[in-house]
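From the pipeline queue, job 12 of 40. The input is one protein chain; the requested action is below.

Action: predict structure.
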Amino acid sequence: MSKKFLGYFTMSRNHGKSHCAHNVATPALLNGQGNSHRNGNDPHIPRFMPSASQESGPYPRKFVDNSTERTKFRGSYSLRRHHTEDWRTRSESASSSRFHEWREPRNGHRNSSHLSHPIISDHIYRGDIRSTVRYGNGMPRKYYNFSNPFCDMQTRSSTSFPTQRRRHGSASGSSDAHHNDARIDPSRFQLRREWENIETPSPAAASDVKPLRVVSYNILSQKLLHLNSYLYHKCNPDSLRWSNRWEKLQQEFHEFNTDILCLQEVEEYHFHRDIRPFLEKRGYECHYKRRTGRNINKPDGVLVAFRIKRFKLLKCRKVEYNRGSVPPVNQDNVAVITLLKPMAEAPVPKDGCLCVVNTHLLYNPKRGDIKLAQLSTLFAEVRDLLSDYSMDKVSILLCGDFNCIPESPLYKFVTNRELCYRDLECRHVSGQNVGQKGRRNLLPSQLLPESVGISENGCVKVGRDHRWEEEKEFELSHSLGALRSSHRHDKREASSTQDKGVTVDYIFHTPYRESAGCGIALHPKRRLSLIKPESLLRVQGLPNFVHPSDHLPILVDFDLVLMPTNGSL
């Protein structure tokens, strides 16, 4: 039979199991049963397989080629696999559809002879199967075997990733060929990170000093992973499944043994089903805020969790950056602010508390005006929440994914308390790689609209009688003090795979103060080092079999110093 035909698609019948089905095909037809009496017994003659599908509509005809042991369908179509032996069909004919969807087997049983990719898009052309497949994890079709136009889908797990097969084990088509976690050397995917001591003055004599561990971690939303699958084409598809990633995240959470955990890109469904039960079982209290809006492609949010035995919640505020339909206050990013009281044997200062803030700013590198507006809104909300407390007795932990590099104006605004943005372009605010093409959009003289009710001088909320004409143009400042990053950023380091490795995740904190009446102070002791951007090439990108996210967790150890005052409780 000539291989040059119109859009034939191939499927395997190896081991008596079919791996693809037409939208009305049955297992019996796919297994080749009931068709041996057609067109004689010549094994080289394609035999027509009549079925009920031809009676219900203009579906593609199905043929069996005994010489190649494969079943071929004319045209592309939609299919859905629920189980190895359980085939379901779509109600509509989708002969023109280019999307194929794999689902996990029911009852939690995964057949190791299959790769369960969430989404597969296939383009089939005349005369040859030159497919531009993108699996749900972004694996390009260049790893597919094009030597035979009727390539076997049964052995896709052994032919799709030849490089990894040669390195990690045999390339045979056995049922456990691609489930070779036991054969994988974890050291190949391990990023070396070491503890670094932080040189700061030792805490003065105090009533109580307790260790405090803080972690900020962008765990990578599964939905965003699928939507941006091209970013993860170097990753092994098994390492991109949520089931495998969640298993690694649990191990990391257990190893962290942290007192305060700040997570970004936490999907609402995964939070309620997996993350919250896991954390609450281990003595954490969780406060979560999902992004605003009804965008089904952005179901993630931010989470603040703390140990109940260590802290008592005083206040909690969930911040929405969307304050209207006019830029730059129309985006759906969010933040969570918690005000915590340490649980200690010694008396705690009355106004002494710890303010933990977690946020995830907009990614778009060209919209620095939106990022500055979001950060200014966050500072105003924090200052409003602390209006009943003395700022010199409160320590602040500002965690999150800020989508800016340490050399950027946005970073300097946090650490220097003020920013002059005259003649500053929007695309230069975050310092991300955006190139030099496009229009030169300068930041406006007044960044925040008056309807928001936030003054740019101090980032505080103001009333309707505020005199906006007295605002200084092109100047922005906040009243939370000069915050300090937990890392020095004096060399090229990376906390994420963005732009081939840059730092965008931070833990900012109030600098240690030795004043006897400061209430609560944070004394940093050590931090977990970041990595060199070149290390990402060695581990074949992130996520992988060791690191479940494309970001690295930021981990810092503090001494929580409780200094008594006359107003102690």
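Job complete. The radius of gyration is 29 Å.
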